Amino acid sequence: VEVKIEVVIPEKERSKEEMSPNGKASPLIYKVNGTARHYHLEEHPIASNPYHNPKDMVEASVCHVKDLENGQMREVDLGCGKALLIKESGEFHAVGHKCPHYGAPLVKGVLSKGRIRCPWHGACFSIGTGDIEDFPGLDSLPRFQVKIEKEKVYIRASKQALQTQRRTKMMAKCISLSNYNLSSTNVLIIGAGAAGLVCAETLRQEGFSDRIVMCTMDRHLPYDRPKLSKSMDSHPEQIALRPKEFFCTYDIEVLTEMQVAAVDVKNKIAVFKDGFKMEYNKLLIATGNMPKTLSCKGREIENVFNIRTPEDANRVVKLATSKNVVIVGASFLGMEVAAYLAERAHSVSLVELEHVPFKKFFGERVGRAVMKMFENHRVKFYMQTEVSELREQEGKLKEVVLKSGKVLRADVCVVGVGAVPATGFLKQSGINIDSKGFIVVNKMMQTNIPGVFAAGDAVTFPLALRNNKKVNVPHWQMAHMHGRIAALNMLAHGTEISTVPYLWTAMFGKSLRYAGHGEGFDDVVIQGDLDELKFVAFYTKSDEVVAVASINYDPIVSKVAEVLAAGRTIRKRDVDTVISLSFRTGDMSWLTGKGS
């Protein structure tokens, strides 16, 4: 059976070898099950409104045309749910009012050039289509019809969409899955985190209808990994990114508890630890990181944990309740675990080699402010030291001995001393790996091997924000975007990554948001009150702002992220006066002006 799908390849990506005599793109040929098959990839239309039941529709007048100025947004109530009404360039648009990621009110977000950015975690959506354009999150916003009659603005919407406030893009399905050889796939994705899942979904959204296989060492389907340290008692089904039915519906196969031991790029074969082999045509490596372990005596004692799975997190919570906890490492994971356990454990002690938490990432002043907040919640810090020994009693942890000589009572120990890329299985593959073990990719997430892509925490890639410097950005949001870019380029779209890194952490009810890439910053300009944990910090290198962080000043981080995404520069000399004005008046319109 010859299956034909139309591929639209950008003009600049077409080589002479791929051109037919009449100048049109010739079919790509994929080899599946040993048989050459021709594919003409055809763009899949995305339905603007998947709901067709008239009884499910509601229409309401929401305002006068003069009630909104250009660049303004307003939450409007349609009786059975709310929508976000937007006016830009004289036109009205209506979409869902909550971010599908964690439900942030988008009316408090940032509107800029046809898209809105979430105030909490930086996800971006088109106001014209509702489609997600930057991450985190998987779903788009529902888009509602807007009409103007007698200078009144009406919105027509689906009741179901008003209630769910999310929309999953239409996706293709595998044409004939039953005919495939189990040991052969068109696309193989090693790793089932955010990067792997977004890659698979993007392929289906773009109309790709051949076999997709994801494999993971985990026993679960893809889940929201950041919640392992922020919401430690969550069960796997509570933090699943997609339900099991989703993978069945869209023919995305997930092989759990399957570890790849080697990759033969010449013959396009992945070899699994149990000896099973799978042929592939395109490969994505998205294996993420593996947590570092302690090297001291007693590291194998029971009740010493790395938080890697939901079971790890659940077990720690159970054992830590009303007990003594020692956390090694003031990393994001270590600090989040300390915050979560502070009210549950009898005591929480945190051991760190540096003298201030987060110093390299947020700077000393912000780090001290965060440290003070933890101390106010009974977390005890032991700084500028490390663990020399773990002692046991009847096989279980009893004490943690520090190099300073201090002995800490401990029923549970959580290790958060960093991570290394999970790329050891690639050492003999021929795939370019740097000295630290990271996979080197270009702007299209391609490795040095044709047809092999890599994404997520295990890669270094050119960051447009920092003049294409090769960086590793182990952020949840960035992993999503890596997966999308890899998928688009598996389909020869020629799409380059240009997103602005965005991350967040939550501790004691305070959310610290961060955008940019501040590695190597030489100064921090702070406005607001660190003691009250209501501030914004600008990280500068020479004369240029390279990153921003804030607590209790939304949506300043999302606003700056939009400026950086537009390729504009904020100068250090402007921060003191202009940001001060923004704080006093609430006016941040200067950020979206022209020029630097």
UniProtKB/TrEMBL annotation:
CDD domains: Rieske_AIFL_N. Residues 60-155 form the Rieske domain. InterPro entries: FAD-oxidoreductase/Apoptosis, FAD/NAD-bd_sf, FAD/NAD-binding_dom, FAD/NAD-linked_Rdtase_dimer_sf, Reductase_C, Rieske_2Fe-2S, Rieske_2Fe-2S_sf. One of its GO terms (molecular function) is metal ion binding. One of its GO terms (cellular component) is mitochondrion. It is found in: Mitochondrion. Coiled coil: none annotated. SUPFAM superfamilies: FAD/NAD(P)-binding domain (SSF51905), FAD/NAD-linked reductases, dimerisation (C-terminal) domain (SSF55424), ISP domain (SSF50022). Belongs to the FAD-dependent oxidoreductase family. This is Apoptosis-inducing factor 3.
